[in-house]
Amino acid sequence: MQAADLLALKPAGLYCAAGDFYIDPVRSVERALITHAHSDHARPGHGKVLATADTLAIMAIRYGDGFAGSTQPIDYRESLRIDAVDVSFHPAGHVLGSAQIRVADAKKIAVVSGDYKRESDPTCAPFEPLACDCFVSEATFGLPVFRHSNAKAEIEKLLGSLRLFPERTHLVGAYTLGKAQRLIALLRAAGYERPIYMHGALERVTDYYARRGVVLGELRKVAGRADLAGEIVLCPPAALGDLWSRKFAEPLPVFASGWMRVRARARQGGVELPLVISDHADWDGLCATIAETGCSKLLVTHGAADALVHYFKTRGLDAEPLHIKGYGEDEAPEETSA
Amino acid sequence: MNRFAALLDRLQRDPSRLGKLRLMRDYFRDVPDPDRGFGLAALTGALSFRHAKPGLIKALIGERVDPVLFALSYDYVGDLSETAALLWPANPGGAAEHPPTLTEVVHALAETGKVELPRVLAEFLDGLDETGRWALLKLITGAMRIGASARLAKQAVAELGGKGVNEIEDLWHALKPPYLELFAWLEGRKPRPLIDDPAPFFAAMLAHALEEDDLARLSPADFRAEWKWDGIRVQAAVGEGRNGAKIVRLFSRTGEDVSAAFPDLVEMLAALPYRAFSLDGELLIRRDGLVQSFGVLQQRLNRKRVSATLLGDYPAHLRAYDLLACDGADLRALPYLERRRRLEAFVGGAGASRLDLSPQIDFKSWDWLAAARRDPATAGAGVDAAAIEGVMLKRADSIYVPGRPKGLWYKWKRDPFSIDAVLMYAQRGHGKRSSFYSDFTFGVWQAGEAGDELVPVGKAYFGFTDAELKQLDRYVRDNTMNRFGPVREIEHGKDAGLVLEIAFDGLNLSSRHKSGVAMRFPRINRIRWDKPAREADRLETLEIFLKK
Ligand SMILES: [Zn+2]
Ligand SMILES: [Zn+2]
C-alpha cells in the first residue's frame, strides 16, 4: 500500500514517514497520534502521544496517568508542524474528544477518519467534513443493510417497553465510552426524568462527561441487591448475560448497537429488545462522507471493507482495503464501540 | 400483515416457551377472522405459494441493488428474506397508509399467476416496513422457522378454547385455512367440526431419547423392546370413499401425503384383505429379503421421477409396529400389548410380501439389551442388522398418545462413531448463526505424493455450544490463509491446525467425495485445543468403520 505517499502500512499500523509518527498504532511506538480513546485505537505504552485534551483525559482514566512517556494536547483545528508535514485534528462526531487527523505536505492532503458518525449527538462535537486527496475511512458498518440514522425512534421503543413492562428492570447494554453517555443524554432529551442506574464500570467515564458539561441528570450507582422494577439500568454489554444481571426484577435485556439491525446478532446475545443505535456512520453516512471529501484515493479499515471498496471503484476512485490486524473487526468486543 | 409480522418478530426473540404461548394466544384472541386463521396456517406450515421461490426474491432485489453489494450483504446476514427486507429501498413517502392485511396477501399470492407475481409482490413490499417485508418474504418462501413449532401454535389455539392440544391434533387433518369452524368451536359459537375423512392421519406418537440415568428408574418387566429401524416413519391409512372406492394414503411422520412417491406400497396396501385400517411403521428398501441401509433408501428418495426401473431397483417395504385403527374401530386407547396382539393377527392375515412385522426383542435385563443394541446381528437381528440404529422401548401398557408424551416410549440409539479431524475450511452459517463462521469442513490424514496430506471428509455445523462457537469464529478469523468467496481456508498442516472431535452416525461409500466416504449426521463433539494436528486420525481409521 502506498497511501498516496503520505501514509504507509507497517506492522505497528498506519505510518507517516515525512513526520515519523504513527496514527492509532496497534503496538507500542515512539510517537503516536490518537484519534479517540476507544481501546482498539488508543493503546497504552507509546513514547509520545498527541491527541485532543478529552482523549488524553479519558485515556488517563482508563489506563492510569503513566499510560505514555509524554503527552501533548491539541485543539480541534489547531495546526502543528511535525517535521515535513502539517497536522491538525478535526471533530469526528464519534465520542467525546474524537477526531479525524489531517496530514498535509506541500502537494497532498490525507485524512484519517478514525471512527465517525454523521448523526447528531448531544455528547460530542459534530463531524466536520474535510477535503482531501486520500481518505482513510472506517467501515465498521460497511454494508448497505446497515442503516441506523434514527436514534430518537429507537429511544421511543425503550420508553414504550418501560410502559408495557413496568414490572421488569430494563437492563441496557451499552459500550462504556460514548454509547452509554449518549443514551443517557438521548433519554433526557426525550423527557425521561427518573434517575438512571449504572453499573460500576460506567461510572468514571460518565463522571468525566458530566464534568465536561454534558447534561445527564440524576445518575445512581447500582449497589448491593437491587430490585429496580421498571427502571433503566445501564451496563457494559458483557454484563447482560452474567451473574450480575440476575439480581434485578425480571431483567429485560436491551442492547443498543448498530449490530442490532441483524436478527441473528440480536438473537445470539439473547437480547429481547434490540435498539439500533450506533456511534459509527451507517452505509449511507459512509458513502456520503467519502464522496464529500472529494478524495481520489480511498483506504478502508475495520473489517467490512469489501462493499465500500467495490462501490467506490465503480465510481472511479482508487479504492482498497487496509488490513490492520487488531482494529475492532465485526466482533465488536466489549471495549470497542459500535 | 403488520400485526402478524410483529408476532413473528416477538416470537423469534422471546426465549421462553410460556412467553411464546402467551404471544400466540394473544394474537389468536385479538385478531379477527380470517386473518388469524391464515396466521395459524402460516405458523403450522399449512400455506404454500407455488410460484414464490427464493429465485423470485433474488430477481426482485437484483433489479434494485448492485449484485456485488447484495452478495456481500447476503453473506453477512445469512438469510435471504432478511437481507432483501433490509436492502429493499425505503418507500419515499414512508410506509403505506393502509398496509396489506395477511388475508389480502394470501389471496393475492394464491390468485396471481407467475408472470404477474413479481409486480404484485413488489407492491406489497413497498407498502410494508422492514419487519413487515421480512415476515412477508419468510411467509412466501415457506421458511417460517421462527422458534415456535407447529405443535406450540396448536397448543396456543387449544388454550384459547380451554381444550387439550391432542383434540386439535385429531381434527387437524380435516381442517383447512382459515379454520373458521375451528375458531367458532373454540369460542363456543358452534359445535365441534365433524371429521368426514375415510383415511385420516393420526398424529404420530414419538419417543424420548433415553438418558443414561433413566434405566436405573425403569423396570425391564414394564417394557417391550423392538429394533429401531433406520428408514422413514410412515403411516398407512386405508378407507372406503362414499362411492365405495378404496382410498389409500401413505403419510409421513408429520402427516404429509407421500403416496405419490411410493406406488408400489400403495398397490400393496390397496390389495390387503381389510376394508379400513391405519398402520404405523417404518418404510424400508428390501432387496432379495435383505433390508438395505438408509443410504440406499436415500437414493430412492432423491429421485424426483418414480420410474419402473427405480421401483425395480429400490423395492419399498413396510415394517409395521403399530395398528391404530381397524375396520372402523379406533384402537389408540388400547394398551400397547393389546394393539400388538391385533397387529400380529393383522399382519399374519395380510399375506403380503411387502409387509411384515417389526419383531420384538426378547430381553431379560437392561445389560442384555445394551449388548444387543451394540451388536444387533448376534442378538437376533441377523442379516437386517445393517438397517438398525438402536432399540425402542415401549411401555407394555402405553396407549397411543399423539406427540411426545413423557415416560411411555424411549429410543435408545447406538453410540455414534467418532474421530479426530483437522479444521480445513470455514464458512458463515445461516439463520441464527449467520454472522459467525459456523460451517466447518474438516479432514483426516492420508498418504499423498509428497508425504501425508489432509483430505476433506465432511462438514459439520452443529454440536458446539454458543460459547464454543464464538471461540471457533475467533479462531477462524485469526487463522485464515485464503479466502475463496465466502469460504475461508484455515491454516492446516502437521504443525498448525485445530483438531475437532467429530461424532457421526454412520459412513457410506461416496463417489462424490474426494475421500471416497460420506459421513451421516456429523457433528462437532469437542474442540481438541490440546491435540496437535499431526495426531489427528487417518483415512484408514474411517475405512475400518465402513466395514462395521
Ligand atoms: Zn471508536
Ligand atoms: Zn474503531
Question: What characteristics describe this protein?
Answer:
heterodimer; A: alpha/beta; Metallo-beta-lactamase, Chain A; Rossmann fold; 7 helices; about 25% strand; disordered C terminus; B: about 550 residues; alpha+beta; DNA ligase i, domain 1; D-amino Acid Aminotransferase, Chain A, domain 1; 4 domains; seven-stranded antiparallel beta sheet; 20 helices; about 35% helix; globular; binds zinc ion
Would you write up a description of this structure?
The complex is a heterodimer of chains A (338) and B (548). Chain A has 2 domains: 8-145 and 279-321, 4-Layer Sandwich (Metallo-beta-lactamase, Chain A), CATH 3.60.15.10; 151-275, Rossmann fold (3-Layer(aba) Sandwich), CATH 3.40.50.12650. Chain A contains 7 helices and 20 strands. Chain A has helices spanning 53-63, 151-164, 179-189, 203-211, 263-268, 283-293, 306-313, and strands at 2-3, 7-10, 13-16, 21-23, 31-33, 46-51, 68-73, 80-82, 85-91, 99-104, 109-112, 134-138, 170-173, 196-198, 219-221, 232-235, 252-256, 273-275, 297-301, 318-321. In chain A, strands 1-2-3-4-5-6-7 form a 7-stranded mixed sheet. In chain A, strands 8-9-10-11-12-19-20 form a 7-stranded mixed sheet, with helices on one face. In chain A, strand 14, helix 4 (203-211) and strand 15 (219-221) form a beta-alpha-beta unit. Chain B folds into 4 domains: 2-141, DNA ligase i, domain 1; 151-186, no CATH class; 208-413, 2-Layer Sandwich (D-amino Acid Aminotransferase, Chain A, domain 1), CATH 3.30.470; 417-547, OB fold (Dihydrolipoamide Acetyltransferase, E2P) (Beta Barrel), CATH 2.40.50. Chain B contains 20 helices and 21 strands. In chain B, strands 3, 4, 5, 6, 7, 8 and 9 form a 7-stranded mixed sheet that branches. In chain B, strands 13, 14, 15, 16, 17, 18 and 21 form a 7-stranded antiparallel sheet that branches. Chain B has a 5-stranded mixed sheet with strand order 1-12-11-2-10, covered by helices on one side. The model of chain B has no long low-confidence stretch (mean pLDDT 87). At the A-B interface, helix 5 and helix 7 of A face helix 5, helix 6 and helix 19 of B. The complex binds zinc ion (ZN) (2 copies).
